[in-house]
Amino acid sequence: MPKNFDLRLSWRSLFTQTLLAAYAYVFMEWLFFATKSSFMDALAFGKKLELFLLTGLILAALALAAFALLRVLGLIPGPTMRGQAFPILAGLIPALLAAALSLLLIDNFTYTVFQFGIVTSQGALRAGYAVLSAVLLILWYRQVLIRANRHTAAPGKTQAAARSRRVRFSAIPIGLAAGLALAALSIVIGLVRLFTSTAVAGSETAAAERLPHIVFLAGEGLDSKWMSLYGYRRDTTPNLRQLAETGLLAENNFTNAAHTTGSEFSLLTGKYPAATRLLYAPNILQGQDAYEHLPGILQRAGYTTVQITFPYYIDAYDVNLQEGFDEVNGRSLGEEGISPLARKFHWEDAGYFLPQLSERIFDRLLHIFFIREMPDPYREVIQAVDPNRIAKMTDQARIGRLGRTLRDAESPMFVHVHLMETHGPMFYPRRRVFSSAEIQDKEWMRDFFDDAILDFDAYVGEFVDYLKDADLWDSTVLVVYSDHVDGWKSNDRIPLLLHFPGGEYAGRIRNNTQNLDIAPTILDYLGMEKPAWMSGLSLLAGEPPALRPILSAGVDQEKIYCAPPDWWCSIDPAVARPPFYQFGYLQAVICQKMARLTLNINYYSELEVFDHTAPCPAADLPDRNAVHAIMVEHLRTYGFDVSSLE
Question: What is the CATH T-level fold of the domain 213-546, as seen in this structure?
Answer without folding.
Answer: Alkaline Phosphatase, subunit A (3.40.720)
